Amino acid sequence: MTVTERNSVDSEKIRLLEDKARQLRVAIVKTLHKSQSGHTGGSLSAIDMVTALYFHTMRHKPDEPAWAGRDRFVLCKGHAAPALYVALAEAGYFPKEDLMTLRRLGSHLQGHPDSKVTPGVEVCTGSLGQGLSMANGMALGLRLDGSASRVYALLGDGELQEGQVWEAAMAAGHYKLDNLCALIDVNRLQIDGEVAKVMNVEPVTDKFRAFGWNVIDVDGHSMAAIVAALEQAATVKGQPTAIVARTVKGKGVSFFENKASYHGVAPSDEELPKALECLGEQCNL
Amino acid sequence: MSTMIATRDAYGQTLGELGEENRDIVVLDADLSGSTKTGVFAKKFPERFFNMGIAEANMVGTAAGLAAAGKIPFVSTFAVFASGRAWEQIRQSVAYPKANVKIVATHGGVTVGEDGGSHQSVEDIAIMRAIPNMTVIVPADGPETAKAIRAAATMKGPVYIRLGRNKVPTVFADDAPFAVGKGAELAGGSDLTFVTTGLMTAQALVAAERLKAEGVSARVVHLATIKPLDGEILLRAARETGAIVTAEEHSVVGGLGGAVAEFLGEHCPVPLKRVGIYDRFGTSGKAEELLKYFSLMPEDLAEAAREILARK
User: Fold this and answer.
1) Can you list the alpha helix ranges (DSSP code H) found in B45-134?
2) Distances (CA, A) of A244 to A29, A87, A156
3) B240 among known catalytic residues
4) Do B88 and A127 touch (CB under 8 A)?
5) Which tens digit of pLDDT belongs to each residue from B44-88?
6) Can you tell me the distance from the alpha carbon of B197 to that of B194, in angstroms, rounded to the nearest whole number?
7) Which helix (H) or strand (E) segment is B246 a member of?
8) pTM for the complete prediction?
9) In CA terms, which of A20, A167, B98, B225 is 20 to 30 Å from B287?
């Protein structure tokens, strides 16, 4: 099924989501510049998906983070914590000013997501490969309770090199977890360079299909495609869905794009105004 | 000490009972449900039992997710795989977020027997004890296992419980009190104290009887909970008897002996001798043969007692 055939979300809503994603990119750049530590490239590649989840797809109550009826989000690629934090702040889980404390001693915004200290963070992630297993467990638990809540897990393509991901993929297929949706941020780069050269994980879609998943291949920066894929995933019965999103590492800031060197580097003082300009934002710091 | 029961059998039976009492309890296993005895629960509550296949890392992560969804997961496999293969998953997905996951590892120690060194877990207590937020329990016998499992189900947070494969003598009455973090004085004594865990407690009780015949008064303190350590009972033993012999079916590195030595070294240094496995891997053999081979018999404990008394 091609996802573009579905048109339940009007173009105005898509435009608003696209603008939200742009604002969140600005927040990521400012946050990382302030902390001078953290992961820029993978936060920017994932933010369109995170935006769609938190501002369109997921049922959640920012003023009641433990609301039983909420959908769950697991950021498996935990180093993209800034993408999650800016979305949570924008949604109202905590004040936006808190973003400026990222990675500092005493902050509730740890370098990688910590469910003990940050409202809205469901589980601790950061060691790659473990998140999908936890998402499986949540999906199993919710199904046992007869809950209508869904679980979303966001993984990186480099992360797929961890064997545990495939143990989890096998289990999700085996247990027919149709309340689970994994989004794979295929930005093609990892710390040491191109994923294809370090340890090739392609073909990603075939691998998930082979484990019994419904797989949707999308442009990970097309808000309309992401939203449509998420809607389709919710209609599939008897199998989990993987949305394989083709993305660009560092997306939105031209001089960050497709550069492995920006995996774990924050924008410098010189780069900040240029980066904000790329994002259509005035630099008034 | 007339009855003999394997701690894993007590586990299976208790899980079956708990399943009736608490609908939130779920159980995961990695293709060993017959050996770990989680099969008892699987038969009664198939919808709450998840066989995760031979994939321990994913099993532990899944348990963490179930805990995040409000369930009380009991996760079982052999001790060597639970503590080894899934160590980092236990650290990151379970202990770091203080997830309410209970890891009940069976076939701990060398008494797993003929399978040999690959399957004999001699370092699991040390590696679990090193993880923040983790509670580590090694019951002495069947009745204590039942209570430890119930206590784990009731308390919030991660717990590692180490059980054995073989039948072991019962040292506790069914109505003996049990509390996580509390030791039990099973024999009074004034010349030295055996501080023991797991099946070594039964061995120490036999050793204490033998020493009594020689005119030596040995106290026996059983520590089911190795973390958090019962400092109170240890301090009293060190002050009142002035000499300590620890005993465990585990490496002397980092386990009970290590924990007691760390604590008493800081708070009340007295002569101390560790009985355990001296930095070696296990080997094939029958359980009883291996206890002899690794010097874990009552006579070995008595000998350690004589040695420590000479150092007092």
Assistant:
1) 56-68, 79-80, 87-89, 124-129
2) 25, 21, 10
3) no
4) yes
5) 999 999 999 999 999 999 999 999 999 999 999 999 999 999 999
6) 10
7) strand B244-251
8) 0.95
9) B225
- Which residues in chain B touch residue A111, judged by CB atoms under 8 angstroms apart? none
Q: According to the model, what pLDDT value does residue A153 have? A: 98
* Residue among B80, B107, B159 nearest B150 (CA): B159
Q: 3-state DSSP call for residue B113?
A: coil
**Residue for token pair 């159980």:** B27
- Domain B4-169 shares a fold with domain B184-311: yes
Rounded to two decimals, the ipTM of the complex is 0.94
CATH superfamily to which B4-169 belongs: Thiamin diphosphate (ThDP)-binding fold, Pyr/PP domains (3.40.50.970)
Contacts across the A-B interface (CB distance below 8 Å): 112
Q: Does A141 touch chain B (CB under 8 A)?
A: yes
**What would the CATH number be for the domain defined by B184-311?**
3.40.50.920
Rounded to whole angstroms, the maximal C-alpha distance in chain B is: 59
Q: Work out whether strand B167-169 and strand B135-137 pair parallel, antiparallel, or are unpaired.
A: unpaired
Query: A134, B93: Cβ pair inside 8 Å?
Result: yes
Task: Kindly name the residue from B17, B20, B21, B56 that is annotated as catalytic.
Answer: B56
Tens digit of each residue's pLDDT (9 = 90 or more) over B195-242: 999 999 999 999 999 999 999 999 999 999 999 999 999 999 999 999
Residue B282 distance to chain A (closest CA, Å)? 28
The beta-carbon neighbor of A167 closest among B57, B68, B96 is B57
pLDDT tens, residue by residue, B94-117: 999 999 999 999 999 999 999 999
User: Can you tell me the distance from the alpha carbon of B200 to that of B222, in angstroms, rounded to the nearest whole number?
Assistant: 9
Q: Angle of helix B200-213 relative to helix B298-311, nearest 10 degrees? A: 60
**Cα–Cα distance, A171 to A200 (Å, whole number):** 23
Domain boundaries, chain B: 4-169, 184-311
| Rounded distance between C-alpha atoms, residue B122 and residue B125, angstroms | 8
Residue of B26, B61, B68 lying closest to A130 (CB–CB): B61
